[in-house]
Structures are given as C-alpha cells and as structure tokens.
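Need a sequence for this fold. Nothing fancy.
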C-alpha cells in the first residue's frame, strides 16, 4: 500500500491520446473573451486555449498569429499529419481527456516524445464546424524538450 501511495505512475501519453475514432474534447459551450495576442511575436499557448481560440465565433483570435504549443507526439493515420497532445485531468487519470492539435508541414518526431511546436493555425474551411473537429496548425519549427514537471493541462 505504501508503494501505491508514494510512487507516482508515469504520465499518460500517446497510447491514451491516440484514439482518432472518438473526439478529443468538446467545442467550447459559449464564447470566451480571450485577451488579444501580441502582434509580431510568438504566443505561448496551452493546448486548451489554442482549441478554444480556434472555435472563437469571431474567427480572428488566431488569425495571422504565430503560436508555440508544448506537448507529446501522437501519430496519425492520415499521411503528413501528427498531433501534439496533452492530457487534461479534472480529478484523476480515469477522467483524463486528450487535448490534441493536428500538426502539418514537418515530419513527425518520435511518438510519445515531448516537443515545442511553433507555427500558425489553419483556419476552418468555411464556417466553424458544428461538431468537434481537431484544430490544425502548420508548423515552422519543432524542438524536442524534456517532459515538463507538470505534464497535464
């Protein structure tokens, strides 16, 4: 019993986040007023914030902005695409939800490795999707990083 309480299990990773047949997260229920991003720089965003901004009804929150996202690599069944992901936990690992952003434009690093991805949001074709669709970005730079001390979002 002592070992169960004192030894932390490894962080949930690509296996837990890799299911493409089920949605990763629901779209935001209502519009959230986001702070404007600084023009000309690279905004460091949490995956949840990037996803929320992608679903912003105004459609301008991520337009023409460079962003940096950090997470672990999850492969995709689609050619020339992979995901940067983080697990979001409300209570415990049993309620973990995978937050994923599709990455295009660069080859996929080794699955389950931690990376910082810099790039730009790929706007929706037409209007915001009615159901949940994983937002995508075109990457210009991918840097391997160490797993953060807090791997969950």
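Here you go.
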């Amino acid at each position: 019993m002592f070992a169960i309480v004192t030894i932390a299990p490894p962080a949930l990773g690509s296996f837990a986040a890799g299911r493409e047949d089920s949605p990763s997260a629901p779209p935001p229920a209502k519009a959230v007023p986001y702070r404007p991003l600084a023009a000309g720089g690279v905004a460091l965003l949490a995956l949840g914030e990037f996803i929320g901004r992608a679903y912003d009804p105004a459609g301008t929150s991520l337009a023409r902005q460079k962003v940096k996202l950090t997470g672990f690599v999850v492969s995709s069944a689609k050619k020339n695409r992979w995901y940067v992901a983080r697990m979001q936990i409300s209570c415990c690992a049993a309620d973990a939800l995978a937050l994923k952003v599709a990455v295009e434009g660069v080859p996929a690093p080794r699955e389950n490795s931690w990376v910082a991805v810099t790039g730009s949001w790929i706007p929706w074709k037409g209007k915001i999707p009615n159901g949940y669709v994983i937002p995508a970005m075109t990457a210009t730079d991918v840097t391997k990083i160490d797993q953060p001390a807090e791997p969950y979002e």
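For context: Confidence is low (pLDDT under 50) at residues 1-12.
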